[in-house]
């Protein structure tokens, strides 16, 4: 019961916010460790004499690890609990960061980034679920988006570190990630288990105790537990996701996870300094551009955190993604017609920032939130593993091919290709993604069971 020590000092909304804040530190590590490579790669390429393919392997090792990590985390979180799985991820962050910072060759560095990837994959699978299962329905959107806010904040911090430490060793850049990893590990040790996981394991008394800590009054906690138990089912296997009544949740969540990456946002994060440096920008200017991109992502995510509970998840995506299409068309044109110098530099940077805002503020905000919401309790852990695996699988493809695409097709055609995929995502969201705003997780599960889980607003 030591995990409830903080809970007894904090009650209701304060505890819920504190839980989200500590758990979201996993997102900070997620963002920092994926983003710092864009700055460090400029030095690593020289020190280890990396080719284009070598650069892509070093960058992609963390993504391959994330793909493995999220698949394993589903089973771990269902068996041992959400909280313990996050602690395992934090431990892997610590180990991976230490080894990466002291790597003496590219093989050790790639292996360390693979371990970091395992941690990132686990965090991306379980932290959104943990926060969603702890949050009340009317605040679930903004609290889960806190995870994505932490991700983009971590990316932004990595860009700032890369810019200010560009004349120092890349090892320092990587090693800084140790501090938030320790905070996450120690913080999770004192937080409660998910009440929904406890109920699923048959521990009703402890589930009620946690809900009483998280909610403003005992009546609300008791009513929520009744709702959870009314939808209670045994722990499902992977075959649960194949059932026809669960399929709409799989299509909606996996589709968003794939599109979040295939629309190109991480291609910009990983390779923006390299692309802009090769296009004629100085190294310092290229790194500074990435810092501006990072701040744009933070602002867009802050806006998205408000909009998911005000506009709704589906409405936000349908309103924002068209802006990403237009921005990418302009960005591609600047490179195709060789206008990215002189006055065109400012248009290029503005188009890049606009794309970042519209894409990050929509698909990137929604991906972990919708994935954590739409699955029934019996399949939520494995369903979110599938979402995270789809996300990281697509990210692996993008990270392995972006520099090669730029070399073969040019940056302009590459950006236009991403514009086409963004346009296709508008149709997908309109056709397959329902509005989940303001509904409890149990209500969403009931919509799946009775066949009313549909891509329409329920306002």
UniProtKB/TrEMBL annotation:
Biological source species: Swingsia samuiensis
The record, for Gene3D superfamilies, names: MFS general substrate transporter like domains
Mind giving the lineage of the organism this protein is from? Bacteria, Pseudomonadati, Pseudomonadota, Alphaproteobacteria, Acetobacterales
Q: Where in the cell is it found?
A: Cell membrane
Principal place where this protein is found? membrane
Pfam families attached to this UniProt entry = Sugar_tr
Q: Which GO terms describe its cellular component?
A: plasma membrane
Residues that span the membrane, as ranges: 18-41, 53-74, 86-104, 110-131, 143-164, 170-191, 249-272, 284-308, 320-340, 346-371, 409-430
What keywords appear on the UniProt entry? Cell membrane, Membrane, Sugar transport, Transmembrane, Transmembrane helix, Transport
Q: What is this protein called?
A: Sugar porter family MFS transporter
Entries under InterPro entries matching the protein: MFS_dom (IPR020846), MFS_sugar_transport-like (IPR005828), MFS_trans_sf (IPR036259), Myo-inositol_Transporter (IPR050814), Sugar/inositol_transpt (IPR003663), Sugar_transporter_CS (IPR005829)
* Topology relative to the membrane: Multi-pass membrane protein
In the record, what terms sit under GO molecular function? transmembrane transporter activity
Which family does the record claim for this protein? Belongs to the major facilitator superfamily. Sugar transporter (TC 2.A.1.1) family.
Major facilitator superfamily (MFS) profile domain location:
19-437
Q: Which PANTHER family match?
A: PROTON MYO-INOSITOL COTRANSPORTER (PTHR48020:SF12)
